[in-house]
Design a protein that fits this description.
Oligomer: single chain
Structural class: alpha/beta
Number of helices: 19
Number of strands: 8
Order of helices and strands: HEHHHHHEHHEHHEHEHEHEHHEHHHH
Helix content: 40-55%
């Protein structure tokens, strides 16, 4: 099907899973590297795309290689603020109206930069971009929805001394302790800092995350950190099921109280189950997916990133999003890393429409789920009102576009569904009624 890229760019969207250090502009990386004397393998856009930030990667290790450069240039407040500002602006320009930026403050900490200072620098950049956008006449006159954002603080499942000065010093200080205890200690410390940043400094820290290598570094080792967040009424997401099996997702939900799951691509992969206690593997994944569906635990879908970090997928048509939609799971489209994956929210949605049979109805559901299942700050009533305004704006953009492009197959499909709904004849396999979006 021909994908109406212009329409998708116009629609209001979210990005709930985007890493700050993986999403900077490539020219900014070059500029900051020169400013802070960080050695790069190339100082041209073309050179970096050939050598580091590629269209495809042969392994997860190659995918992650670029982070050594992006993190290296983000060791100063001004750099963090600039990159956060530009990330918000890039999202605004493609129609994103709610953004949750995640990062691990401990990757940027050193003798002159503590966790709170890191978070405040990122917030300044995001807030400046937000204030500029929301002063536009169309937003002030409520012709367009305002832009909002939140910050998600990441802990790391594991780390090495080369990752940052903070990690180096922590490993040295506790060099006689088991590694997993040191990893857990770092997670607890940053969980406390996230709560303090929100409660004492008024920063919009809306969630807590666990990132890093799954295999060999189980989520349950970080249970105490998540208890700190949980007891403080902080929302929680976990990278799980990206490179490990359904059991990793199960741990994230049951041990860490995850409200959302990052990636979750292995949810239905029975051959990735390792526990000998699980005799009925198919029954296990069916029960797990049912549990996720019942509780509307939203899965943050990152198509391009999944294809790049899991080369065995081979083709997007094999992505598990199709099974997730069939199981009526709550999903939403995210970028993961705009620079490293060379993508945008608009591009991710276009890929889903083109390769995974995402219909106009499924598209609307996933987009609205992004707003509904976001961790945005403020009261529940305010969030409901904001979501309502987003739905109204989404419908207006769609109607205006469809009236001018009625010959496009995607618009024709949407119009047929709308006609059937109005006549009370919505197809049986249509996963969500309009009422559910309220």
């Amino acid at each position: 099907m021909n994908v109406p890229t212009r329409l998708i760019a116009l629609l209001p969207k979210t990005d709930l899973h985007v890493h700050l250090d993986g999403s900077m502009r490539i020219d900014t990386l070059i500029e900051l590297a020169k400013t802070y004397s960080v050695r790069l393998p190339s100082y041209t856009t073309g050179g970096l795309k050939d050598l580091v930030f590629k269209e495809s990667y042969v392994s997860l290790a190659e995918y992650l290689a670029g982070f050594r450069y992006t993190v290296a240039v983000l060791q100063q407040e001004l750099a963090l603020e600039q990159v956060a500002f530009e990330l918000a602006r890039d999202n605004q320009e493609e129609g994103v109206r709610y953004l949750e930026v995640r990062f691990a403050p401990q990757l940027h900490m050193h003798a002159h930069l503590d966790a709170i200072t890191v978070m405040r620098a990122v917030d300044r950049g995001l807030r400046r971009a937000t204030d500029e956008f929301n002063r536009q006449p169309a937003v002030l006159h409520r012709e367009e929805p305002e832009f909002r954002y939140g910050i998600i603080v990441c802990a790391m499942r594991e780390f090495k001394s080369s990752y940052s000065e903070y990690y180096r010093d922590l490993l040295r200080l506790h060099r006689f302790a088991p590694e997993k205890e040191i990893f857990a200690l770092a997670s607890q410390e940053i969980a406390r800092a996230a709560v303090v940043a929100r409660d004492e400094f008024g920063l919009p820290v809306v969630g807590f995350d666990l990132a890093g290598q799954e295999d060999g570094y189980p989520a349950v080792d970080h249970r105490d950190a998540y208890q700190i967040a949980h007891r403080s009424f902080m929302m929680k997401t976990v990278h799980a099921g990206e490179a490990y099996g359904p059991e990793s997702i199960f741990q994230a939900i049951t041990e860490l109280h995850a409200d959302r799951i990052g990636h979750g691509v292995s949810l239905f992969e029975t051959d990735m189950i390792t526990s000998e206690e699980i005799q009925d593997r198919q029954g296990y994944v069916e029960a797990l997916s049912q549990y996720i569906a019942d509780r509307r635990i939203t899965i943050e879908i990152c198509l391009t990133s999944n294809l790049q970090t899991n080369p065995t997928l081979g083709d997007l048509k094999h992505h598990t999003l199709r099974k997730m939609n069939a199981a009526r799971l709550s999903t939403t489209f995210c970028t993961d890393n705009r620079l490293v994956s060379n993508t945008s929210v608009t591009q991710e949605i276009c890929l889903a429409v083109q390769h995974l049979g995402v219909t106009p109805k499924l598209l609307k559901n996933s987009v609205i789920y992004g707003f509904k299942r976001s961790f945005q700050p403020g009261s529940y009533l305010d969030k409901r009102a904001y979501v309502r305004s987003i739905i109204d704006y989404y419908d207006k953009v769609w109607r205006d576009y469809a009236s001018q492009h009625s010959d496009e197959p995607f618009c024709q499909q949407a119009n047929r569904l709308r006609t059937m709904e109005e006549a009370g004849r919505a197809p049986a396999d249509d996963p969500t009624t309009a009422a559910e979006l309220d």
